[in-house]
Design a protein that fits this description.
alpha/beta, 355 residues, 38% helix, TIM Barrel, 4-stranded antiparallel β-sheet, 12 strands, globular, 11 helices
Amino acid sequence: MTLAIRPVLTDKPGASGPDALWLAGGPQVFSDSEVLWRDAEGGVSRHHKDLSNLKVWAEDRGLVALVAETLEALQAPRGPFAGLSLEHPLVMGVVNVTPDSFSDGGDHFRQEAAIAAGRDMLLAGAAILDIGGESTRPGAEPVSVEEELSRVLPVVRALASEGAVVSIDSRHAAVMHAAVDAGARIINDVTALTGDPDSLRVAAKSGAAIVLMHMLGDPRTMQKNPSYEDVTLDVYGHLEARVIACEAAGIERSRIAVDPGIGFGKTVAHNLQLLDDLAAFHGLGCPLLLGVSRKSFIGRLSADEAPKDRLPGSLAAALAGVARGAQIVRVHDVAETAQALKVWRGVARAGLAQK
């Protein structure tokens, strides 16, 4: 059985009535919801319920404790992640130290260029730098651990030594371990610590913050006719299981952020559904990270622009995610995203000030 609750959100508290709940501490509130439910027989359904009717629905099905636990997780404020406050959405800048990234075509493959790009992103407003040495674009072939280490370690070491909060984007335990030793404070794994049999142990021992992402298959196969019963419920169930596995391995939930993996084994329709349902993932009780920057679904919804020409769509998708509770946005265009978020925060504050 799997249960998720998608809050129907507003940033105007008075509009939701006196019983409205804050999503992860605010600024959005909700009093209506949609219940996503997979029963013991595997049947999947969705039910629109305001909060009072939700309690009745739960009582009828013997799910009072599960619904109460999920609602508590949805509204609990998130503590700091990797030492960073989540009071306002954070920008994670992407530094691909690869020759074949889908998004930048190897602009930062040279280590000097990657370090310079990271510095520029920090000045432009990035709170986190996500450094990766292996492309995970659709169809990408894996690289050896030795090659990945040679690409990322000098960059991690240089930027961490200058005070940057560095994330290592890797699915290999040896790379995670070496990067944390070099100063990385976050491990960002597209396989949610399943891609390497030693990842869970290394991540637990490292003390680093962890990002668990959902991916269907691997980069070579993930876009070959991906299929789900209900994409949000399926991705939620997978991430829920991974959070539980991490806790069993000694990784506290407060160290974990979740990422639904937009574009990783999803069609355009799947991506749009996940974006619309994004707030439901706060039911896992973890910070919520979203990566939509330059993704192919943006071009498919528009005019098939090249990745570097998808900035307007990237901003639109990022703001849609933040309006649904995303607390960290992983982006290539840091300055533009930081500006857009400042305007979004200004509007949200104005709405709250009127109440």
